[in-house]
Amino acid sequence: MDPRVAIFISGRGSNMNALLEAEKQSRLKGRIEVIISNNPDAQGLDVAHYYHKKTYVFRHENYKSREEHEKAIIRILKKHEITHIVLAGYMRIISEVLINKYPNKIINIHPSLLPAFPGLHAQKKALDYGVRVAGCTVHLVTKDVDAGPILVQKTVPVYSNDTEETLSARILEQEHIAIVEATNLLLEGKFRIKGRRVIFEEDE
Ligand code: GAR
């Protein structure tokens, strides 16, 4: 069976858009089945409809716990026989309830070169720290936030006249490349995990 992907978003959805565009151009090694948002006002939902994708909104405020919220999402993932999940700007921490249902089948994109600058406002933290190289990371999701084995990283220079906005935009361009590359690696599954490292079959 072809891999069946769910993309999780919370806002703008430009990384999701990069994946939808890749699928449209037959550059994706699986099918995007559903888009899931925790935010009913996420702009990305309109983008998803433009691509004729089924969307579901699960407002986390409507559930009494993180676990209950995820159990409701899992029911929909099962219904659509989802095999892989891409967190593309999903601004919720996910728990072991979801992670254990999809071990090493969930990836997340983060706008820094992890392990530097995990958490929120990564681009501002990089700028304030004074790094000369910044970038983005796509990693497998484990129970520790922004800390799973790394599939893809892309770098960008940081300039003296950068603002949070200019640096974020430069990183975002690379995110759109990295998310497609990493999703394809995930869907192909030609790797194993050794400690923290992702070992690709072709390197063995
Ligand atoms: C992206 O920069 C993504 O890396 C970041 O949110 C933005 C979402 O943009 N994710 C995180 O910070 C996760 N901790 P998008 O909705 O346009 O894809």
* Contiguous runs where pLDDT drops below 50 for at least 5 residues: none
Write down the CATH topology of the largest domain.
Answer: Rossmann fold
N-to-C series of helices and strands: EHEHEHEHEHEEHEE
**DSSP summary: helix tally:** 6
Can you describe this structure?
The protein has 204 residues and is an alpha/beta fold. Helix content is 34%, strand content 25%. A 7-stranded mixed sheet has the order 3-2-1-4-5-6-7. The protein has a two-stranded antiparallel ribbon with strand order 8-9. The longest helix has 25 residues, at 164-188. Glycinamide ribonucleotide is lined by residues 9, 11-15, 44, 88-89, 109-111, 122, 172, 175.
Secondary structure elements and pairings:
Layout (H helix, E strand, L loop, with lengths): L3 E6 L4 H11 L6 E7 L6 H7 L3 E4 L8 H14 L4 E4 L8 H4 L6 E5 L11 H8 L3 E8 L9 E8 L6 H25 L2 E4 L2 E4 L4
Parallel strand pairs: 1-2, 1-4, 2-3, 4-5
Antiparallel strand pairs: 5-6, 6-7, 8-9
Helix pairs in contact: 1-6
The structure holds glycinamide ribonucleotide.
